[in-house]
Amino acid sequence: MQCPRCKNTDVAYFYKGSKGYYCRKCIKFKRILLEEELEVFDVKEIKEGISEYTLPFTLTPQQEQVSKQCKEAILHQDVLLHCVCGAGKTEITYRSIQQALDLKQKVAFSIPRRQVVLELGKRLQSVFKDCKVITVCMGHTEELDGDLIVLTMHQLYRYPKCFDLLIVDEADAFPYKGNEVLKNIALNSCKGHIIYTTATLDEYLKQRVQDQSIAYLTLHRRPTNALLPVPRVITLPNLFLWFYLLYRLSRNQRKIMLFVPTIAMAKRMYKWLKLYFRIDYITSETEDPQSILMRFKHQQIKVIITTTILERGITISDVDVYVLYANHEVFDEASLVQMVGRMGRVAPFVKGDGILFCNAYSEEVHRCIKQLRRSNEVSMVYE
Predict the structure, then answer these.
(1) Is residue 51 part of a domain?
(2) Dihedral in degrees, nearest 10, Cα atoms 63, 69, 74, 78
(3) Which CATH number is 78's domain given?
(4) How would you class 12 by CB atoms within 10 Å of its CB: exposed for 0-12, middle for 13-18, buried for 19 or more?
(5) Same domain for 177 and 94?
(6) Cα within 13 Å of Cα(361), Cβ side
């Protein structure tokens, strides 16, 4: 037995109802009987003359080269865009999107988080002005078909064998990372090829690179042409760690993103630090994170306390990054690289003061520093 949607073969997940066997592993995406054919999504034909796009800036020579390589490779195989944080992964895919639309192919851009879907949808519509861009995520499921569909990964179940080009953004991030159900639903939605974009590789992508089953393209330099900021590591006992954090916050005149490992800690830190600083916090429980981010961007707030919810998909100029208890088990190499990757993304603020506050040695912290230094070394070699 095999589920036609998530490809599960574990008999423990199959249940026999009155109409036959169905899979409980992916039942939250709508029940489907094993004997059923997946309902094919009825897509409208792509019109001609909608593929032109306009960028408000010029790609760097390095971005141009990777963009052209991606466009050529995606015709024949899946592509992995392994680019450092802030290298412009989204813009590099535009040529491939244009090519697919010219061929009247259906394109989707899947993203881990709902808020980023809504933001990217607006961004892509401003670039592909003649193309109908729609967003599909929680609260936005009234319209399901367009020329270019931007959606969360959980919404891919609606589109079996639909897309000729599927872009999986941040393929190593939650909830896609390690989730066999979502991975197989994504594969099931694509009848063509997939572009995976990320700054940090998980084991699945590493294995595909090793097997040479995917075109592997890299970009180790940001458009600003500056090296990646490498954070300092401060290891102290708990009490001294907190005093040193308070000292650094009081001395720093720039905006600061303070990452903490848990929601409970974010709330405690907010109650304590709001006595001394203009501060707010964002977690997965925050009802209106955008208003807080706007206040932060306009310097109405000096410090924003957050969890891994803001480790990706956000660009703020002139910001420093502090990670409290960077050695916590919640943080791995990938999340640490992504968090410190919020620094130095916008010229002229290409440098940043990043600090990883630890109360014990961490192998993940060590790997994070090693990866950032290696990226800088590689970018200087190819300069």
Answers:
(1) no
(2) -80
(3) 3.40.50.300
(4) exposed
(5) yes
(6) 2
**Same-domain check for residues 20 and 87:** no
49 belongs to a structural domain: no
In 3D space, the residue among 166, 189, 186 whose CA is nearest the CA of residue 78 turns out to be: 166
Residue 212 shares a structural domain with residue 74:
yes
Question: What number is the average pLDDT over the span 96-111?
Answer: 96
Same-domain status, 246 and 213: no
What does the CA dihedral 306, 312, 317, 323 come to, rounded to 10 degrees? 40
Domain range for residue 275? 232-381
Domain end among 193, 219, 245:
219
Identify the domain boundary among 219, 251, 268.
Answer: 219
Overall number of domains in the chain: 3
Residue type, position 207, single letter = Q
SS3 sequence of the chain: CCCCCCCCCCHHHEEEECCEEEECCCHHHCCCECCCCCCCCCCCCCCCCCCCCCCCCCCCHHHHHHHHHHHHHCCCCCEEEEECCCCCHHHHCHHHHHHHHHCCCCEEEEECCHHHHHHHHHHHHHHCCCCCEEEEECCECCCCCCCEEEEEHHHHHHCCCCEEEEEEECCCCCCCCCCHHHHHHHHHHEEEEEEEEECCCCHHHHHHHHHCCCEEEEECCCCCCCCCCCCEEEECCHHHHHHHHHHHHHHCCCEEEEECCCHHHHHHHHHHHCCCCCEEEECCCCCCHHHHHHHHHCCCCCEEEECHHHCCCCCCCCEEEEEECCCCCCCCHHHHHHHHCCCCCECCECCCCEEEEECCCCHHHHHHHHHHHHHHHHHHHCC
pLDDT at 321: 98
Q: What percent of the chain has pLDDT over 70?
A: 99
Give CA–CA dist 295/302, Å, rounded: 9
Query: Do 115 and 193 belong together in one domain?
Result: yes
- Write out pLDDT tens, residues 260-310: 999 999 999 999 999 999 999 999 999 888 899 999 999 999 999 999 999
Rounded to whole angstroms, the Cα distance separating 146 from 160 reads 16
Assigned domain for 329 exists:
yes
pLDDT number for residue 225: 87
Residue 11 placed within a domain: yes
Q: Which amino acid is at 182?
A: L
